[in-house]
Amino acid sequence: MANDLWWNLRRNGEGTALLIVAMAGGFLASFLGLGITGLLVFSNAAGIERPWTFVTYPFAFGRGDLIGVLFACLWLYGIGGQLERAWGRTRFLGFFFAMAALGALALLIGGFLTGIGATLAGAFMPLAALTVAWGTLYPNQPVTFLFVLPMTGKWLAWLSAILVFFGSSDPAMALFACTPLILAWAYAGGRLGSLGASRPVERTWRGFRDDPRFREEVERRERERRERERLRRLFENSLGDDQDRR
């Protein structure tokens, strides 16, 4: 059963699967009281002394945050998997951790300028950035938010930005918290010059045109077509020979 679950996760994208496992592992460690959650949480008051927390806070979940981690994993499975298939594993993982680090850096700068303390725990910040990037690349793709509210990709991106803005610990920190989302929008839209992401690779029936797996699939189907044609001709010739003997 565990192997089947891992296979289904990997089928959607290995990078996405690894992030889901890491988030689930962070929650399980907290639930079992292993005492590592506090080491993962980012605080702008101690961010300089704990630099690893710039990229570890997405995996910090509280002991009673089962609903939160399930929601985060489902969200990542859907949106993150599609982005990974479009960008590739390396770019996708780099984007995820870059957005996590930029979110922490923005709050660190905001705390320095305003004197307001802020913490980050859980994957909502990088997930919101992923959602903005996804909505930028697929603005008209239909999606059902929370399995209830139908909307398109661009409106889901706007909703994520609104949740980040009004979910900030203080109004003065809201703009700083939205900085990664603005950069995600610019990156996905190709507005950062050579640093910008390319548009999604043209989808095919299965895979992408620049993916070796797609070429292998095309070659396999061509071999199967030729083999069916050869068997058909053999069958027709055998029928003709039978009629001639009669």
Description:
- The chain has helices at about 1-10, 15-30, 35-40, 55, 65-85, 90-115, 125-135, 155-165, 170-175, 180-190, 210-245, and strands at about 40-45, 120, 140-145, 150.
- The chain starts with a helix and ends with a helix.
- The radius of gyration is 24 Å and the shape is elongated.
- The protein folds into two domains: about 1-195, Rhomboid-like (Rhomboid-like fold), CATH 1.20.1540.10; about 205-245.
- Residues about 200-210 have low confidence and may be disordered.
- The strands form two sheets. It has a two-stranded antiparallel ribbon with strand order 1-2.
- Helix content is about 65%, strand content about 5%.
- The protein has about 250 residues and is mainly alpha-helical.
- Strand 3 (about 140-145) and strand 4 (about 150) form a beta hairpin.
Structural class by SSE content: mainly alpha
Mean pLDDT: 82
Poorly predicted runs: 201-211
Taken in chain order, the helices and strands follow as HHHEHHHEHEEHHHH
Q: Mind telling me which CATH architecture of the largest domain this is?
A: Up-down Bundle
**Percentage beta strand:** under 5%
Helical proportion, percent range: 55-70%
- Total E-strand runs: 4
CATH top level label of the largest domain: Mainly Alpha
Number of helices: 11
What name does the CATH topology of the largest domain carry?
A: Rhomboid-like fold
Distance between the termini: 59 Å
Overall spatial form: elongated
Radius of gyration: 24 Å
Q: Give me the CATH superfamily of the largest domain.
A: Rhomboid-like
The major sheet is characterized as:
2 strands, antiparallel
Number of domains: 2
Side by side, the strands of the main sheet go 1-2
